[in-house]
Amino acid sequence: MSRSGRILLTLCCLLTAGSSLAATQLENLRTAVHPDRTRVVFDLSGPADFRLIDDDALSMQLVIDDAELAAEIRQQLFIGTPIAYVTTDASGEGLRLNFELGQRVRTKTFALPPYLSRGDRIVVDFYATGDDEPEADGATPEFLAAARQGNPGEVGTIHSERPGREPKTTEPEPERETGSDSTLVLSGTWEHEWAVETGDADTQKFESVIEPRLDMDLGEDRRLTAIARLRLDSAGELGPDASRPDNYASINGPWANNEHGSIDLRELYLDARTGNVLWRLGKQQVVWGEADGIKVMDVVNPQSFREFILDDFDDSRIPLWMVNAEFLLGDLGSLQLLWIPDTTYHELAEEGTPFAVSSPLLIPQAPPGLNVEQRSADKPDNAFSDGDAGLRYSAFTAGWDITLNYLYHFQDLPVPYQYLRMENGQAIGVLAPEYERNHLVGATASNAFGAFTLRGEVAYNSDTFHVLSEYRNQGIGESAEISSVLGVDWMWEAQHTLLSAQWFQSHLPDFDTAMYRSETEHTLSLLYQRNFNYDTWTFEALGLYSVDRGDRWINLKLSHLLRDNLELWLGGDIFAGDKEGVYGQFSSRDRVLVGLELGF
After folding, report:
1. How many C-alpha atoms does 542 have within 13 Å on its Cβ side?
2. Is residue 16 in some structural domain?
3. Mind giving me the DSSP string for 87-109?
4. 396-405 pLDDT per residue, tens
């Protein structure tokens, strides 16, 4: 058995003798408006029994047995729907959701099993009284036939309160009704993209990524999830060509890799519960924070930068082996504890590839004529002494979703220390990168005010390292850093349109005037998303602009849901500005791309 397999087996054994799960968590609520109905989707932490009770034509209740509310229900989700508002209360039966309606409706309810990035779900469809009444409470034969045929008029996409944050995977409707006793679900996605650089019309990538997924019910409400990834790229321009990139720990990394493809275990984790503790054990992603384009709090997992930040974070984030435990504190919120023995860090684009970093803000610049010796990074490799640990407290109070976060970790980007050595009377520059520890203390907050959502993140990093224009102190200046983001989201027209603006700040209290970067740096972002033609078409535009240097990146994407499990898109990435800027360094890398994603 491989070392990673032994680690998972050990983690699974920790819970073999545990008690059965208690309450299922209602983690999120989403709505979508379709021509013939309004759909409400309840995301759950696991399977649960439920029933819909009609008090009268303008009031009804959804009861989810042995369930608890783990997230705020935002009333602005129901703007433009037959639902006036929803309240919740707990009872001896579990969680009760009370729907007050603005018009008479008929309903249809069913459950969806885990699929792709989604877990267990309950779906309630609200039909206007004039529509044909569904045959029964559950998926009708006509409904299932429409799901199999992918008729956009019958089967639509599901959008969250902030559609710009939705995973790009599509989600098929159920092929079976509630009550199936299946313990094994096989699914997956095939994504293909063709990217061409506009300058010389060279193909940058012609890449297929296949991600098969297995969800297995292990009994007593425990579930095992495994996701593999197969990447094939006939162009091979993006790399990496190393058979095993050196940023990975011995327990992580691809099974096989070269510039034309790779095979790896993407995620493998066990979900379980003992008492009031939710466990996720194994290789996984943990997301802290919700900023678009730039990460402030989302630093638990490292990232692959083979395509800079152009790829979705869900795809570029590198899963880690860890113990993830969440303690449910009732009305006081929840407390998440992380222990991460996996010493895997950022995967940077290799030298000579399109998105290799060249900005002096990040890479030391050698004087003309100086020979440079590049050494491999001194990477931590002890799972216990070099592991990371995190703590997050989450609560909902006075209308605000808040978190308080702490992470003790090695920063994922090595510090490029430099020095000179003499050889045969000639000076040679030596670049000797090292990983350094950091304490991150931060907080997030968000609240909805009608059609507007206000959100913010702030983080204090005890030790950050920045390139100097001088060779003193090994060419590196050290300072604490205070970074933050303030965002405002505006959703209107029955949630078909989203406008999101963000203001990022980064301040160094121990600033050194020899640093390439500024003492305080500002970045602005703007996201526009519009869903139209019954949500089968989506247009997105995201722009990031550095106020201090004037360089920028614009991402455009037009996507079409051709079938319920098939999405096509056309997009482009545009860079502009000084080549010393983070975005301007790629000003010759503008590209257009076409792609598709098929769920199976």
Report:
1. 18
2. no
3. EEEEETTEEEEEEEESS-EEEEE
4. 888 888 999 9
